[in-house]
Amino acid sequence: MNRFDRITAILIQLQSKRVVKAQDLADRFDISLRTVYRDIRTLEEAGVPLYGEAGVGYSLVEGYRLPPVMFSREEAIAFLTAEKLMEKFTDDSLQNHFSSAMYKVKAVLRGTEKDLVENLENQIMVTQRKTNASPSGNILDTLLKAISDKKVIKLEYKAFGNEESLERKIEPIGVFHEYENWYTIGYCHLRDSYRQFRLDRVVSIELTDELQQERTSLKEFNEMRERAKASLTLQKVIIRVDKAMALYIQEHKHYYGFVSEKVSDDYIEMTFLTQSPQQGFVRWLAMFGDQAELVEPLSLKTDMKKLLERISEKMNL
User: Taking the model in full, what pTM does it have?
Assistant: First the structure.
């Protein structure tokens, strides 16, 4: 990126947030803080009304705005791709908001970019397996409002294995998408601790006027959870899998603590670090055990044998 484009991008970023830190600009554009200061000085000399505070960051004077910046060809394609993803992986309310925003984006595109977006409209497709990846109604939208406004929400939630739903009041701190489902983490008033909720199990949701207490952020919560995981005892497991079968387990191996693999002529040797090899890992290995060899620990072979014997009994074999 040349200096002119970088300074223009810095001005756009300054318009996108109330306060922008110099270090954030340096990280984004891979430049030194000294270069950031020089670019900011260039903007000031060009008449852009900026004010900065040491240790806080830079801000534009309230009310100052440039006319809409034209989007590049690549940015137009990125918006279109994002729209396709939004259609599949968010709730109805967020989809409508994004579609409305896309009309505004398309309105400021140049003619050639408008033609490009129109031509690509039917050339980009996002497919998914029949799962509950997309929350229904306005669940995701309501959660994001609650997080933004620091409000308590009321859920009617049906936990796994329970026929009846329970009413919960939670203070959501964030949402995330993992293993084909949306989740939220929040402080649960019923359990008096942080809990994780899967959004496809939410029967109904209501945004209340009750303000949240001062809670940890999702980033801080995840850091604490990672530290807790690191303190658990993990057991090393090594298996050798036929190359033909290895292709079919690539997607799921990470769920079981996959660390690394070595490729040989006939097989792939995979190393895992797992918390409960005697339970989940052995059951997973049983799915393709006829094309795999357990290298270590050898004690797991006994667990595997017991599992297969129980299956045989159930099947009356």
Answer: 0.61
